[in-house]
Predict the 3D structure of the following.
Amino acid sequence: MKTSLIISIFISIFFLACSSNDNLIITSKNEKYGVFSSKENKFIIKPIFNQLSFIDGINANNTNEYLLYEYNNYFGIISLDKVIFKPVFKKVSKFYNKLAVVQENDKFGYIDENLNLVQKPIFKDARDFLFDVSFVQSFSNNKYACIDKNMNLITDFSYDEIYSFSNGFVRFKKDNKWGFLNRKCEEVVLAKYDFVYDFIDGVAKVIDGEKIYFLKQDNLK
């Protein structure tokens, strides 16, 4: 089935060298999507896909157009002249800081803005690179670690829970206590509170037993 799909894609593409100024439009025919060139007044990628969308946030120096397509509930990536990824992904996220999360079966990894698979899907979970660091989850102990854009682990897999960045800080849970990480994955507030809330306008509410405190992000201890 997938072999015939790839053949169909290449037949549809015909290795055309079109650029972004060709007025390319994603449109549908018989409930399938393709790419229509208003300049050439024809489909340059035939409407054979269930979903199709241009990919934003990739290498600005690359003038080619790249598209995310869905076929039989799986996603792949094509350009106007070749197949980049066959339809093997359950998920392809948006690009943040030149990286996107991909999911293959039940495992997560990353592709970069040049559409290279820079991290093979091996993690139970992987988060977007909103800054220069992100977080991945291990299958072995179900805990999270911090990772940099070169796919190097900055911390070990020791965090029970990791939340999203808020005001440049991430709240985490470790050994049933809560603390904060900064954008460098440094523990600027150790895991010592019973619960913490996100920083909002530079202030975070924290709970320590029956006591409630308010931390200021410019005076963390």
Remarks:
- The helical segments are 2-13.
- The first helix runs from residue 2 to 13.
